Predict the 3D structure of the following.
Amino acid sequence: MVSRVIPVDPFDLVIFGSTGDLAQRKILPALFRRFCSGQWPDDVQIIGAARAVYDRDAFRDIVAESLRTYAAKQCQDADALSSFLQRVDYVPLDALSDEGWDLLAEKLTVDRVRAFYFSVGPRLFGPLAESIKSHKLATKQTRIVVEKPFGHDLESARALNATLARHFTEGQIYRIDHYLGKETVQNLMAVRFGNMLFEPLWNSQYVDHIQITVAESVGIDGREDYYDRAGAMRDMVQNHLMQLLCLIAMEPPAKFDPDAVRDEKLKVIRALDSVEPHHIVRGQFEGDGPSYREVVGNPRSTTESYVALKTHVSNWRWAGTPFYLRTGKRLVARSSVINVMFKDAPHSIFGADAGRHANVLSIRLQPNEGITLKVTIKEPGPGGMRLVDVPLDMSFAEALGPENQDPPDAYERLVMDVIRGNQTLFMRGDEVEAAWAWTDPIIAGWQARGDVPKPYESGSTGPGDAELLMKRDGRRWQGINP
Ligand code: NAP
């Protein structure tokens, strides 16, 4: 099955921070792949901006190099590359000064979608919003795209929301959480709300518990300063894991419309129980290579590179069903997966020897995006009624053909959604604030108690206490499999 490409209208996209890691590794390659897929009209302008002084051709050379590195697999057509680069321009500009903005204004096209992507450090979000407005670059068709981190706590998130709201309407602000752009995450909504099969079972009566794991094998190289101020709770749980939890737990929205979806997600965050200190485990990696403290150059750092926690969504649907979340750096494998663990059958007609068999719906975000349902069947062959669990694999490649083996990167979808003006997969300001309101007391509790993270071996599954968190409840984590 060949996926349909719906063309977008002509647009101008300005990328502040266009020479940085995110722009070069993710945003520009995503744009190029969409260009190669034929989603663009001819008349599109991509304008890079950063302080470094380059002329247009020098910047195009930089972009070409990145595209060869990060987009070659999807698009090897030399003509396409040169055609894409024709649409790329550059303006040297400092977000904190008034210079460069007039040149940018001259290059922008009147009367079309105008998107400004803030691919810069968060301290520049406010000044950029102010400068876009004061230099009269904002039109009715203007959108701004803001990267994480969106605030450091509730107070800073509120302040940032207020600054952006002084210059732009909520409908013009696109707060990116790239997890929401992943094919499987959207498929999760399709599976839940497009089938009769799952929704009747999607509650505490049939679901024993939910596990959300975002495990990374990499460390924090290159982001040491930021990470040591943030930690896993702020860097991963407050945003990515929270968003995944919302999509699992939310009520069916009345329609697949940005505010209908985001209203339901917000209700989930507001229904989250606060986390008891004994229901949360923090860890810091060590052993096998440099320890966390060596990496960040801070021998007394108490920042966590791992978090596991148990929480509840206190509403009718989920009362009594725990949600276990865990994320960490330098773990045994890179694996992001949501496991919906169904309850055991109420009575086994096959006797105690048949063992316990519960269905598990696994939603894999990376690697190998796909959805698997573990079901119990009879082991083939004679010799009695032996039961075995087998996966029903809803892999994209098998079901939809090899051309869907490599789903588009999240940034491809999200950047095109900005151009189309679809905010469904972006976080609303009140969602972000509600997530911080839940996160802040947890972090404040650690600080008040002088909590020190538990060490765990690099390359392991995390601290032993995280296993205990489950064991105490008579449960265990599913494996972290690549
Ligand atoms: P980066 O590699 O440090 O790049 C920063 C960019 O901002 C550079 O192009 C830099 O170029 C430009 N810049 C810095 N100060 C500027 C100023 N005063 N005026 C105009 N441009 C300025 O950072 P990054 O990794 O790309 O991250 C960018 C943002 O995305 C950050 O908020 C980060 O937290 C977020 N993010 C990044 C990733 C990732 O995978 N990298 C993932 C999620 C979120 P000049 O120095 O030439 O000005």
In short: The chain has a mean pLDDT of 93. The chain has two domains: 11-147, 180-410+427-471. The chain has 14 helices and 15 strands. The CA atoms of residues 170 and 190 lie 26 Å apart.
